[in-house]
Write a structure and sequence with these properties.
Layout (H helix, E strand, L loop, with lengths): L1 H6 L15 H8 L23 H12 L5 H15 L16 E4 L5 E2 L3 E3 L8 E3 L2 E2 L1 E6 L2 E5 L2 E2 L14
């Protein structure tokens, strides 16, 4: 591997799957009441990996394709449990009087698209991006920010800290 990389002036890329592909292992991990799915490095490794696909993978693979997780359990772990863990008492579930950002999708159409390289960062730098299909609307603070996969340009979100807006 090293010889091939050096012969290609270190432009060769070696790619392996990031996730474990055995749904039984994931089901076992998700059976813990303390497991919150997610991967984030705040974008620190945007040249090497795109771990932000975990929510689409979870819905498409573990819920739809393998039945390892119920849709209700997936939504609980993707929204309510993280809100609870971060001490946001007015978020994470769709209930009257609570703040809610809403994602509307077609489960049968959800899929992660192939990785792309975009050269859109300052100073001509590049990053890896992995988009998804099947999301109809993403609504934040009552305003659509994505409609059928297209960004609307709206930015109604705000920073939340210490369990408060």
């Amino acid at each position: 591997m090293l010889d091939l990389s050096v012969a290609d002036n270190l432009k060769t890329e070696w790619v392996t799957p990031i996730q474990n592909m055995n749904p039984q292992y994931h089901k076992e991990v998700m059976s813990s009441p303390y497991t919150i799915p997610g991967v984030s490095d705040g974008g620190a490794h945007i040249k090497f990996t795109t771990p932000g696909t975990y929510s689409t993978d979870m819905l498409a693979w573990l819920v739809r394709d393998t039945g390892s997780l119920s849709l209700e359990e997936a939504h609980f772990r993707l929204a309510a449990l993280p809100a609870w863990a971060a001490q946001f008492k007015d978020r994470g579930t769709l209930r009257e009087g609570m703040a809610a950002d809403i994602i509307i999708y077609e489960l049968e159409k959800l899929r992660v698209l192939p990785m792309e390289v975009l050269e859109d960062l300052p100073a001509g730098e590049w990053r890896r991006v992995q988009r998804a299909e099947g999301y109809r609307w993403i609504i934040v603070n009552g305003q659509p920010i994505f409609e059928d996969g297209k960004c609307t340009g709206a930015t109604p979100g705000r920073l939340l800290r210490h369990g408060r807006a």
